[in-house]
Amino acid sequence: MKFVDEAIIDVVAGHGGSGCLSFRREKFIPFGGPNGGNGGRGGSVYAVGDPNLNTLIDFRYARRFEARGGEHGRGSDQFGAAADDIVLRMPMGTIIADLDADRVLAELLVEGQQVLIAKGGDGGFGNAHFKSSTNRAPRKKTPGWPGEARKLKLELRVLADVGLLGMPNAGKSTLIAAISNARPKIADYPFTTLYPNLGVVRVGPERSFVVADIPGLIEGAAHGAGLGHQFLRHLQRTRLLLHIVDFAPFDDQVDPVEQANAVVAELRKYDSALHDKPRWLVLNKIDMVPAEYREQRVSEFIQRFKWEGPVFEVSALTREGCKTLVNAAYQHVSTMLRNPLDNVDDPRFRSQADAMSAVVTHG
Question: What does the alpha-carbon distance between residue 138 and residue 21 come to, in Å, rounded to a whole number?
């Protein structure tokens, strides 16, 4: 299935039904009085997060969603029926923005929570609504109110705890396949990953986290080169970034330090907040380096790269060092979940109540 993480749709809520102008006319009741009923409410449009969806493909071809209008009021004090609401199911992590007003309406971060994106119009009043002791025969009614109409931009940002980034062919897909249940395409040519892959890493019973792999970055990605810039937004919700470096490239002319610096530079150009996220260095393909030279080459790399954070030496192919990396990542993620108030920038923790509920949800 094609991966779609952006879509533009039109939503139109239903208009309210008009009120009725009517008088009661029955035999032997000379002064029946007004009995025009009110109109019904128009249908509203809601959005709800569905964890079973992982793409916006449903909104690529069906782009207009219009709710029905409410029924008109009738005589004999009969009110018009309200129209049914429309509920649009979207992947978790979808951001809904109003293009005309240039503002974000909602972020679908809680499973099953409905968010109103277009309110249906209220029904009009019939003449029975206006009767009083001084106005016993009102000849007034009101039309129904129109429903809201909006042009919306949907943007999907996957909900993952750990994100992988690096140059093409750094071994990100091989690593996510080695540590999780994801089965991405793996080949010996660049850009085999064309869309983000999500995998669940199980550390033990009831102990797991979600990892996301995006297409590789190249120099100039922040300005549109390559594919990775299209999906960097998917790393903005992560709590930890793993910078995967090809430590043993086949081409002797390729310098791993220059590649690592290029990725960091593109990350800084794209989003300074994303650049400032916790980031660990993962030296992949360590099995290609003879054991007697590993320590020296790792030391030289760290010195030239001027890196002061955590460093992990792994081989995604032989799974050497993967268990240590997975355990450390889980400890980092679980610590942040136990102390959510320390992560107020995370959109999933917009208030203290949200933070505490997340603690209960994630254990």
Answer: 9
Task: Supply the pLDDT for residue 350.
Answer: 41
Residue 243 DSSP class:
E
Q: How far apart are CA 124 and CA 32, in angstroms?
A: 22
Q: What is the pTM of this model?
A: 0.69
Contact 271, 198 (CB under 8 A): no
Is 317 strand, coil or helix? Answer: coil
pLDDT tens for residues 168-189?
Answer: 777 888 888 888 876 655 545 4
Alpha helices in the chain (DSSP H): 58-61, 172-179, 256-270, 272-275, 291-305, 322-338, 352-362
Out of 3.30.70.330, 3.30.450.40, 3.40.50.300, 2.70.70.10, the CATH code matching 162-362 is 3.40.50.300
What is the fold, at CATH topology level, of the domain defined by 6-156?
Spo0b-associated Gtp-binding Protein; Chain: A, (2.70.210)
Residue closest to 316 by CA, chosen among 198, 208, 164: 164
